[in-house]
C-alpha cells in the first residue's frame, strides 16, 4: 500500500516526529510505502509530492516545523479541488490512502473527503490542546515550556523596574496554554476565553500583588474577552477559512491596567515563537507513538478514524467524535489556578 502524508494548518513542534514514526513503522513492519504531499492540502490538489523513505526521514524527530511544508489551503476550492479531482490525482500517482496530520480544520476537511469515498486517517495536531477526543496533542507541551521560559524572563525585567508585565499567549478558543504556563510561571492573573473577567477584577489582582512588593505578571490568551467585549480582539483580517486572525488583546488591556492602577505596565505578545524550535522530549515521544499507530490503523483499513491519546494509551476515534466539540478549560481547573492570583 502506498500512502501520502500531509501536514496542514499551523505548524507545531512534533510534526516531523509523526512523519518519522509512521514511515519507520510502515516500511519496516506493515509493508507500506510513503510519499509526502508538499504544503498540506495544496500538495494534494496539485499532486505535488516527494518520496519518503527511511533515508530521507533520518534524524528529523528533533527538528521543529515540518519537512513537508504546510498551508491553510481548502481542498474543496479551486479548479483542482474537490474529491473527484483528488481521487484522480491519487490514482495517477498510485497513492492508495492519505494520512492527514492537522487540527480541527484539517480533520473537518478529511471527514468530508472520507464521506465522499476517499481513504483517509488522521493524526490530531494543535498547540492549543483543544481537540476533545484526545487528552493531549503534541506541540502543546513545547508551547507551554516556551511560554513559561519567556515569562520567567519577563518577570526579571518587570521586577527590575517595578512594572506590571502582560504576556499574551496563543489560545483562540481555549486557555490551556495560558493556564499551564501561567501556573508554572507564578502569574498573578490568568485570563482565558472560557472566563469573562472585568477590568476591575484584573486591576484588583494586579494591585494586590504590587502592594505586596511584587512585579505583577498577567497572562492572557489571545482569544480572551473582558466582560465589556462581545468578540475577541482582532485587527488583522481573516484567514483562508474566514476566521478572524486574533492577537493584540495584551496591548489593549495593558494601558487599561496602567490607567486604573497607576502601575507602569508593558505587554509582550509571544505569537509564533510558541510554535518554533525543537519539540520537547514528551512531544517527540507522543508524536512518534501517534505516527506509528496511524500506520497501524491504515493497515486495518480504519478509514475516517484518527489516533488519540487517552490516559497513557493510544486509541482510535472517529472524525465525527473528534470534531464534536472543543476541549475547554473546566471550571474547577480555573478555580484551582485562581487561588494563586493577586
UniProtKB/TrEMBL annotation:
* InterPro entries for the chain: ATP_PFK, ATP_PFK_prok-type, Phosphofructokinase_CS, Phosphofructokinase_dom, Phosphofructokinase_III, PKF_sf
Which residues are involved in binding substrate? 126-128, 163, 170-172, 222, 266, 272-275
A GO biological process this protein is involved in?
A: canonical glycolysis
Record keywords: Transmembrane included?
no
Q: Which residues bind Mg(2+)?
A: 104
Q: Which NCBIfam families match?
A: PFK_mixed, PRK03202.1
Q: What domain of life does the native source organism fall in? A: Bacteria
Cited Gene3D superfamilies: 3.40.50.450, Phosphofructokinase domain
**Is Transmembrane helix among this UniProt entry's keywords?**
no
Enzyme Commission number(s): 2.7.1.11
Q: Which family does it belong to?
A: Belongs to the phosphofructokinase type A (PFKA) family. Mixed-substrate PFK group III subfamily.
Give Gene Ontology CC terms: 6-phosphofructokinase complex
Write out the residues that bind ATP. Answer: 10, 72-73, 103-106
Q: Looking at its record, which EC class is this enzyme?
A: transferase
Q: Name one GO molecular function term.
A: monosaccharide binding
**Phosphofructokinase domain segment(s):** 2-297
Instruction: State its location(s).
Output: Cytoplasm
User: Gene of origin?
Assistant: pfkA
- Reactions accelerated catalytically: beta-D-fructose 6-phosphate + ATP = beta-D-fructose 1,6-bisphosphate + ADP + H(+)
Q: Where is the active site?
A: 128 (proton acceptor)
User: What are the site positions for Important for substrate specificity?
Assistant: 105
Question: What Pfam families does this protein map onto?
Answer: PFK
Q: Which organism is it from?
A: Agreia pratensis
Cofactor needs: Mg(2+)
Which UniProt key words apply to this protein? ATP-binding, Cytoplasm, Glycolysis, Kinase, Magnesium, Metal-binding, Nucleotide-binding, Transferase
Output this protein's name: ATP-dependent 6-phosphofructokinase
Amino acid at each position: 500500500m502506498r500512502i501520502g502524508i500531509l501536514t496542514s494548518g499551523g505548524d507545531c513542534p512534533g510534526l516531523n516526529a509523526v512523519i518519522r514514526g509512521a514511515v519507520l513503522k510502515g516500511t519496516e513492519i506493515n509493508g507500506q510505502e510513503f510519499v509526502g504531499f508538499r504544503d498540506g492540502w495544496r500538495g494534494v490538489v496539485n499532486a505535488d509530492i516527494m518520496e519518503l523513505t527511511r533515508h530521507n526521514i533520518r534524524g528529523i524527530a528533533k527538528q521543529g516545523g515540518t519537512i513537508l511544508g504546510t498551508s491553510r489551503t481548502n481542498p474543496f476550492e479551486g479548479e483542482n479541488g474537490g474529491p473527484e479531482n483528488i481521487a484522480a490525482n491519487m490514482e495517477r500517482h498510485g497513492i492508495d490512502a492519505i494520512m492527514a496530520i492537522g487540527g480541527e480544520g484539517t480533520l473537518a476537511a478529511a471527514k468530508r473527503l472520507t464521506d465522499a469515498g476517499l481513504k483517509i486517517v488522521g493524526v490530531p495536531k494543535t498547540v492549543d490542546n483543544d481537540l476533545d477526543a484526545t487528552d493531549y496533542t503534541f506541540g502543546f507541551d513545547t508551547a507551554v515550556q516556551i511560554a513559561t521560559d519567556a515569562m520567567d524572563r519577563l518577570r526579571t525585567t518587570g521586577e527590575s523596574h517595578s512594572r506590571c508585565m502582560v504576556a499574551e499567549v496563543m489560545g483562540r478558543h481555549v486557555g490551556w496554554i495560558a493556564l499551564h504556563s501561567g501556573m508554572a510561571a507564578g502569574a498573578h492573573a490568568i485570563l482565558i476565553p472560557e472566563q469573562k473577567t472585568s477590568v476591575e477584577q484584573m486591576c484588583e489582582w494586579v494591585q494586590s500583588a504590587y502592594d505586596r512588593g511584587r512585579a505583577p505578571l498577567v497572562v492572557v490568551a489571545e482569544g480572551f474577552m473582558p466582560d465589556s467585549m462581545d468578540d475577541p480582539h482582532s485587527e488583522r483580517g481573516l484567514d483562508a477559512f474566514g476566521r478572524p486572525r486574533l492577537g493584540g488583546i495584551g496591548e489593549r488591556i495593558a494601558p487599561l491596567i496602567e490607567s486604573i492602577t497607576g502601575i507602569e505596565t508593558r505587554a509582550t505578545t509571544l505569537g509564533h515563537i510558541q510554535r518554533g524550535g525543537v519539540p520537547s522530549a514528551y512531544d517527540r515521544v507522543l508524536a512518534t507513538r501517534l505516527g506509528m499507530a496511524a500506520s497501524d490503523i491504515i493497515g486495518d483499513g480504519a478509514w475516517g478514524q484518527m489516533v488519540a491519546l487517552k490516559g497513557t494509551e493510544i486509541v482510535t476515534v472517529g472524525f465525527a467524535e473528534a470534531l464534536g466539540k472543543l476541549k475547554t478549560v473546566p471550571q474547577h481547573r480555573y478555580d484551582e489556578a485562581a487561588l494563586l492570583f493577586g
